[in-house]
Amino acid sequence: MADDTKGYVLDNQVGYLLRRATQRHIGIFGQALPELTPTQFAALAKICELGAVSQNALGRATAMDAATIKGVVDRLRDKGLIASTQDANDKRRLLLAASDEGRALYESLTATALRISAETLEPLSEDERIAFVEMLARLG
Amino acid sequence: MADDTKGYVLDNQVGYLLRRATQRHIGIFGQALPELTPTQFAALAKICELGAVSQNALGRATAMDAATIKGVVDRLRDKGLIASTQDANDKRRLLLAASDEGRALYESLTATALRISAETLEPLSEDERIAFVEMLARLG
DNA sequence: CCGCGTTTGTTGGTGTACAAACGGATTTTG
DNA sequence: CAAAATCCGTTTGTACACCAACAAACGCGG
């Protein structure tokens, strides 16, 4: 029977550990970059990366469903970081683009964002960070 | 300058990857165990693990703040899986305990829960799973 | 060109998640 | 012992996150 195999222990389950790690990361993010939430920053980053996109396409690019991306886009627009216009060729589509302020903010914040990633991974050694991120990407 | 060092790419950031991995895990959980959410199952598991606890203590044991655990406890009680009574020694406290149904459900579901964890980690090799979970625990 | 399936964005509902503020109970401390 | 600090649970407000249902617009096959 050896050790404690076979028992269910919450604290060892991936799902629980993922939740805790995410909580810690969001805490670090909020400390270092209070202007935007991680989700808002992700959406802004993707808009800057992709140029003009429709709202749903942005959602797909950032792993948010249609209902979620709507709220995020609304908040970014309220802050004046992005602008939306009707697509002339397809009247259903909202074309989104970063405003000058949005792009400037994004560019001024990428260094901070990288620092946040580093701080999140800080409990791991150099080699471990690389291996961990690579494995994590496979779980997405 | 070698490769692409230095640039900020959303898809390589831990926070984003954590979010995606969590999404996938929650999807797997919902498929395999639709009766409860991952959070509700975590709370029920901890109650069964710890015996009687106060509401806030349960929150701390499951990494949920007071406002969050309240909603989770309310829903578990609505389902008849846990019961709450006033603590006689400390009139502030709500003492929580699993009902017979709650305990039975928990015990009948631990095997499924373990299978969910395994399926979440399925893209990794045996050795990788162990290393990954250990590192993930350090990030919490 | 017409109908039908699909896509786009919106809304409503549920469930985490956290901050801030609160009243009441308890504990600590002067 | 009385005042201060703390802890308990609750409420309110904001922000994801997803499901299901919807109307308008699009596009394709017949």
TrEMBL record, chains A, B:
Any one GO molecular-function label of the UniProt entry: DNA-binding transcription factor activity
GO biological process, one term: response to stress
Organism field: Pseudooceanicola pacificus
Short name of any one Pfam family annotated for the protein: MarR
HTH marR-type domain ranges (all copies): 11-140
Matching InterPro entries: HTH_MarR-typ, MarR/SlyA-like, WH-like_DNA-bd_sf, WH_DNA-bd_sf
Source domain of life: Bacteria
SMART domains: HTH_MARR
PROSITE patterns tied to this protein: HTH_MARR_2
Protein name: MarR family transcriptional regulator
